[in-house]
Design a protein that fits this description.
By secondary structure, the chain is α/β, with parallel strands linked by helices. It folds into three domains: 154 residues, Distorted Sandwich (Spo0b-associated Gtp-binding Protein, Chain: A); 177 residues, P-loop containing nucleotide triphosphate hydrolases (Rossmann fold, 3-Layer(aba) Sandwich), CATH 3.40.50.300; 84 residues, GMP Synthetase, Chain A, domain 3, CATH 3.30.300.350. Helices cover 19% and strands 26% of the residues. The protein has eight helices and 21 strands. The longest helix has 16 residues. The termini are far apart. The protein binds guanosine-5'-triphosphate (GTP) and magnesium ion (MG). The site of magnesium ion (MG) has 6 residues, from helix 1. The site of guanosine-5'-triphosphate has 24 residues, from helix 1.
């Protein structure tokens, strides 16, 4: 059962950075004013937050796409645009994070409140105020914001049972798991229907789920190997509460009190703390039982030393299941509360490892055929140069001039020149095509 793994694939997109703004401040006695367009705000991050109290990834069946807010555009008066809101996704402690495509392990969240930034928001673009220099006193251009990162990640969580189901064969353990979770264990009227442990996830509320383990029935002498033995109890060693299922419809033919004591003895014989776990008792099959007879069963159970809370239910019809499972959940919740020390310093924030930087690469010339237009094509790629392109408003002549200067600074024009680029050739940077202009005049600027 240690191999039970829950998984979920999430698609996340961080917020885009806001664009910078072009603005000229006007004053009564200074008709020309000064550039005062502010920077765009940062886009929000998408952050996974390890959360105590979550046992599974079941919530992501209902929602698996998450976006953070985009930054606002810059304002006048050098006002920076508002940053986009971060999106925080609650995930269970113990959750491993993988790149969905490459299967690379990004990291693991091991402690409550630990954070993992899975997609970083885009930077805001600079407003025209940020481009003022002694030779460029009234810049009429600004930068565009950077798009936020996008990622497809796979979360994996090894499921550990919180609640264990115990009882004789046919008590209705698997029937209970079927109604309390989405798991579909086999249910049948013969003993030892369940041959392997089965896990199901019970949803107690938003961000709150519990793993329930259904194991094969125990019988008298299980600890000596009778029936299927008691080896399956090892799967309950890490649970925090037990639900003890009792068939009370057997009253005519059997003795639920004796059944109860049999299971208690087996738990004690097994040891390892199972008999000391908090438990609740499910008096099952009420739909075919007599209330007054069950009153007597309860009384006898008390006399026999049972101090656990008892609940009447019918796992078959679903009646009374919630109060029973809810009581077990309260025990787990109560024990879990000690696991998070509020004083403990929150663990350090982690980031998705950045992909290896792509250096500047200039390729070409490639001769263009007539269809694509005559001339030569040069292909330029690299993180930095593509970033510069994305941030440029290509419809603004001043912005283009500034772009040209950045291409000079990055060494792109030298590399193009060395490869024989001439006026009029096509230069493709990322997915944008530009016409090559001799760098000479930009250098003279
Ligand atoms: N009438 C009635 N029948 C029930 C109820 N719960 C379970 N049963 C029946 O009891 C039989 C045994 O139920 P299971 O859920 O398979 O019992 P189990 O405890 O998992 O049994 P093992 O896997 O053999 O240990 C099945 O025929 C169920 O349909 C109930 O509340 N009412
Ligand atoms: Mg079963």
């Amino acid at each position: 059962m240690s191999d039970f793994v829950d998984e979920a694939v999430l698609h996340v997109k961080a917020g885009d950075g806001g664009d910078g703004t072009v603005s000229l401040h006007r004053e009564k006695y200074n008709p020309k004013g000064g550039p005062d367009g502010g920077d765009g705000g940062r886009g929000g991050d998408v952050i996974l937050v390890a959360t105590a109290g979550m046992s599974s990834l079941i919530d992501f069946r209902y929602r698996s796409t998450f976006k953070a807010g985009s930054g606002d555009a810059g304002g006048t008066n050098r006002r920076t645009g508002r940053s986009g809101r971060d999106t925080r996704i609650k995930v269970p402690v113990g959750c491993a994070i993988y790149d969905e495509e490459s299967r690379e392990l990004y990291g693991e969240l091991v402690a409550p409140r630990q954070e993992f930034v899975i997609a970083v928001g885009g930077e805001g673009g600079r407003g025209n105020a940020g481009f003022t220099t002694s030779t460029r006193q009234t810049p009429q251009f600004c930068e565009r914001g950077e798009p936020g990162e996008e990622a497809r990640i796979r979360l994996e969580l090894k499921l550990l049972a919180d609640i264990g189901l115990v009882g004789l064969p046919n008590a209705g353990k698997s029937s209970l798991l079927r109604v309390a979770s989405a798991a579909k264990p086999k249910v049948a009227s013969y003993p030892f229907t369940t041959l392997q442990p089965i896990l199901g996830v019970y949803r107690a509320g938003e961000d709150e789920s519990y793993v329930i383990a259904d194991i094969p029935g125990l019988i008298e002498g299980a600890h000596e190997g009778v029936g299927l033995g008691d080896g399956f109890l090892k799967h309950l060693e890490r649970t925090r509460a037990l639900i003890h299922m009792l068939d009370v419809s057997l009253i005519e033919r059997g003795d639920p009190v004796a059944d109860y004591l049999t299971i208690r003895r087996e738990l004690e014989a097994y040891g390892r703390g199972l008999a000391e776990l908090p438990a609740v008792v499910g008096l099952n099959k009420m739909d075919i039982s007599d209330d007054e007879v069950v009153d007597l069963v309860e009384e006898e159970l008390r006399k026999a030393g049972c101090e656990f809370e008892m609940f009447r239910l019918s796992a078959g019809t679903g009646q009374g299941v919630e109060p029973l499972v809810g009581a077990a959940v309260r025990h787990v919740r109560y024990l879990r509360r000690d696991e998070v020390d509020p004083e403990e310093e929150a663990p350090k924030r982690q980031y998705r490892p950045a992909p290896a930087p792509r250096p500047l690469v200039v390729e070409g010339p490639i001769e263009l055929t007539d269809e694509e237009g005559a001339g030569l094509l040069f292909q330029v790629s690299g993180d930095e140069v593509e970033r510069v392109m994305r941030r440029t408003h290509l419809n603004n002549p001043e912005a283009i001039l500034y772009l040209h200067r950045q291409l000079v600074d990055l060494g792109v024009l030298d590399r193009l020149e060395a490869r024989g680029a001439r006026e009029g050739d096509t230069v493709r940077i990322g997915d944008v095509e530009l016409e090559y202009i001799d760098s000479a005049y930009v250098r003279e600027e």
